[in-house]
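Holo prediction — zinc ion.
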Amino acid sequence: MASFFDGLPAVEPSALVGFAGNRIDRRSEHRSAETVAAALTDGRARVYLFRGDLVLVKAGGDPLFTGAEANGLGASCEDVMLLGWADDAPRLAATIPETTAVDEAEITLTNLRALATAGAVSPEHLGALAQGRSLANWHGRHRFCANCGAATTIAIGGYRRDCPACGTQHFPRTDPVVIMLATNGERALLGRQPQFPPGMYSCLAGFLEPGETIEAAVRRETLEESGVRIGRVRYHASQPWPFPASLMIGCHAEALSADIRRDEAELEDCRWFSRDEVKAMLAGTHAEGFTAPSPVAIANRLVRAWVEAS
Ligand SMILES: [Zn+2]
């Protein structure tokens, strides 16, 4: 019997992007002061550690620290975040002070983007680190109540901050971004931001605005950045993007016009590429040295899915 879900890919496209390997069981309905206290006394608990925007990784690519090790590095129990459980053991995250000295012979301080690109930790840890980093970043920037200005306190394992003065509860944010590959027959539209590595072209992208659908954001951002009008929009995959707390929503978009009017403030270049050129960019064999984004990025999956659909 035909299923409503026939026709979907065998592997969910969102499972193929960087930061998608998080296996933590969040048990979000059970987060409370008691579960956090129990987690802190559980000898099997392990902690992911951050210093500012950097992640601490032990030699050999192990990012998990015991509670004692975390304490030794200055992590505070007061501000610890309970990400969830892995194999029934608590997984926590904490930030150590910027001033804490770290023995760099034993522990590497690195950023998540570099970790992802290098494949230096397992996909499972990479996904959990993305969860921890987005959360830690939010706490670092939301110490005071947006309603009354009083200092707030961490609650339910880091998934809320409470204001003792006015009672407002604040929740961590996730910022949706649309990222789209506009295509017209055998051609795809790609652009370059000035900070991209030399020769790299990628999909256009931008933040969703309040009151906007995903499809409307895809049409507006493509028009604003390139002058190209978009018709039909098809969702492809999503990706947690912890810089600091985005959700990339990847779409394919049907271009209805071809003339490019580039937004010069956003893009250094924007042009149409043939399918053969895009194949060569993915393979690293483009005659002019142009490249596609790395497989960590959802843009790579959007481009690859279009190339493979031919
Ligand atoms: Zn308040």
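READOUT: DSSP finds seven helices and 15 strands in the chain.
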